[in-house]
Specification:
6-stranded mixed beta sheet, phage-related protein like fold, alpha+beta, 8 helices
């Protein structure tokens, strides 16, 4: 690895310190890492295992072995014919000499620039994940529903049934995978309505807690974890009038996410990341551009987002989507 020359040699250098800043960038409202755990890969493109159902095929008597004979041999798990391809996503920012000279600490402009670029890079990834998992066409008919009118959870008249809807989602996934979903994404706007919904108030009114929390909602729904993203974004293009809103909107997603990602482990989805030298999933590079009197910092990540447990048309079996959960 080259040593960065601050005198302006023009060399591109993976900066370990800035890479650590980028990887350590906190945003607790991002959901991507939970729904699409990272699987590190050594090749930009390759095949991955899909969720095959061979293990459920029962052939009575086929496992009987007579003395001196070989055991019957079974086929292995199905391999997807659609390979992943980890596209590089990168953004960069200049850090000018003037900015550095005016800063109280020489590291601050580099840190600020790295965090800004990282934030925008991960925000775009989060939006890609949100779009993927909230598209009805990505699910079988039995694994999605759209709520309208009094069926929406913002209606407290007694017609809306969020707990029943959650159990329907649970059963739909279980019927396909024979495992329960363990994660649900309930956006901030939706959660703010659920906290006062009579369905939940009725369930806890005799408990000592007396307040509907995310943990209680998860327990009542039969889930291990409820995630409440509240991240906002500007959906307008540069130069247009700002359009600020919640990135995750009003759709709710249920999913089965395994405790540990693996190439042969069924899951809602994986992020296949083509690692950089040293096994890093995300790097910050820095180089000098003397003509601009600036250092340039670039943050990069190479990934592909894929549903894993799918049917023969590519629709997700490990997820369930509720569109327009509230009005």
């Amino acid at each position: 690895m080259a040593v960065y020359d601050t005198r302006g040699g023009g060399n591109v250098h993976i900066d370990v310190a800035l890479s650590n800043i980028s990887m350590g960038y906190p945003n607790l409202d991002f959901v991507g890492d939970v729904l699409f755990p990272t699987v590190r890969v050594r090749k930009q493109s390759d095949k991955y295992y899909t969720f095959g159902r061979e293990g459920w095929v029962v052939e009575p008597g086929s496992d009987v072995r007579a003395p001196g004979t070989e055991a019957n041999e079974i086929p292995g798990i199905t391999v997807s014919l659609n390979p992943y391809f980890a596209v590089e996503h990168a953004l960069q920012i200049p850090v000018t000499d003037e900015e550095r000279e005016n800063a109280d600490s020489p590291m601050s402009p580099d840190r600020d620039g790295t965090e800004l670029v990282t934030s925008k890079l991960l925000l775009a990834r989060e939006l890609a994940i949100k779009t993927k998992v909230t598209t009805v066409a990505n699910y079988p008919v039995a694994n999605s529903t759209t709520l309208v009118g009094t069926a929406q959870w913002s209606d407290y008249t007694g017609t809306s049934k969020p707990i029943l809807n959650a159990h329907t989602a649970r059963d739909a996934i279980h019927a396909q995978l024979f495992v329960r979903p363990n994660v649900t994404v309930i956006p901030y706007q939706v959660m703010s309505k659920l906290e006062d919904h009579p369905d939940f108030i009725e369930r806890i009114k005799y408990s000592m807690v007396g307040v509907v929390t995310e943990e209680l909602i998860a327990r009542i729904m039969g889930l291990s974890r409820v995630i409440v993203p509240g991240v906002g974004y500007n959906s307008a293009r540069m130069g247009q009038t700002e359009s600020i809103g919640y990135l995750w909107g009003k759709d709710v997603v249920f999913a089965y996410v395994p405790p540990r990602p693996g190439l042969k482990t069924p899951a809602f989805g994986y992020e296949f990341v083509w690692v950089y030298p040293g096994g890093q999933v995300q790097v910050a590079e820095r180089w000098r551009e003397q003509k601009r009197k600036s250092d340039v910092i670039r943050v990069s990540r190479r990934y592909d987002l894929r549903f894993i447990a799918v049917d023969n048309t590519g629709d997700s079996l490990a997820g369930y989507l509720i569109k327009n959960a509230i009005a």
